[in-house]
Amino acid sequence: MNPYLFIHRIKGPAMLLVFGITALLHEWDILSFGRSWPLYLIVLGVLQLAERAAWSQHQQQQYTQGAYAGPGTGPGVPGTPGGFADAPSSSSIVVSPPSLPDDPNRRFDQGEGR
Prior knowledge:
The structure is a single chain. The protein is an all-alpha fold. It has a domain at 3-65. The protein is built from two helices and no strands. The chain has helices at residues 3-27, 37-67. The protein is rod-shaped. The two termini are 55 Å apart.
């Protein structure tokens, strides 16, 4: 399971557990509810920090696993996985960019290619 989802899902039960512990401490006259609010803030802050750290780690793993390989890698680049070296040698398909006409004043809307 994704650590971010785990921390996100455990946040509510953890706060309920802290509330139960402070209620027990209140019954034993160790800690009153009026003085326990910093404990709630500390637990909630720690859970938020852990959740954000897990989210950051999850996002970083997605980018390093190939969601974005960066320039100079991937299909069509020689020597990389999926590049020209991996293409079958019997392939005769050559892809090249379209060439522009020699005359820059030539119009393309004169029925060509219809």
